Amino acid sequence: MDKSSSDTMIALTSTNYNMWKPRMEDLLNLRDLADPLDNNGVKPDKKTDEEWTKMNRKTVAQIRQWIDHSVFHHVAQEQSAYTLWEKLGSMYQAKTARNKTLLMRRLVNHKLRGGISVSEYTSQFKDLVNQLSTTGWVLKDEEQAILLLSSLADSWETLVVTLSNSAPNGKVTMQMVTDALMNEEARRKEAGTEQSYVLISETNRRGRGRNGGRSRGRGRGQGQSRGNSQVRGRSQER
């Protein structure tokens, strides 16, 4: 169980706190190291000072093991697991105008480009929305759906128009948009596969045609050579 939890764990960076935090909480709970956080750093009566100190050190080590080097220097000197945890929260969950502005800019500038699947893209989009909600700015479902539609490239314009015009009561939802994107992606992949098959078949057909022409040409040439040899033979006999 411990191995599988570590396999899915990610290192904390300056942009993924909202995803990192619940995963780290799960990992600490799985390894029975969450008490220093659950008790706000206060030792419970049932534990000795030695036991508590040892658990605190283990918790600090476990958390810092999953902090990227770009962030590590902020907590390198922290000895208390609870203080370390709170410091990370104050850094990345602060409900400041600056954090709200930065997150909203990232959300607005988030665009669906080539090389990324719809599933990955919508997951990244939702993560930004969740990060924004931790600052106290909670976007309604319709607002999220409109932002997601607005982030699509021109090649998705037909889908955007169709979805906007067919929305019940003029309101789009995240479920509607994500379902439509998934279906369109599947359709495009299928169409691309069929197109590739047609191109391969056409190439093979043309190749066979050229090879056949060369074979016939060689056959005619060999026939002419044999005919010329026979004529020269009869002339010599006479």
From TrEMBL:
Question: What protein name applies here?
Answer: Retrotransposon Copia-like N-terminal domain-containing protein
- What domain of life does the UniProt record list for this protein's source? Eukaryota
- Which residue ranges have biased composition labelled Low complexity? 225-238
Start-end of Basic residues biased regions: 206-219
* Comp. bias regions, Polar residues: 193-202
Q: Which organism is it from?
A: Cuscuta europaea
Q: Where is this region: Disordered?
A: 186-238
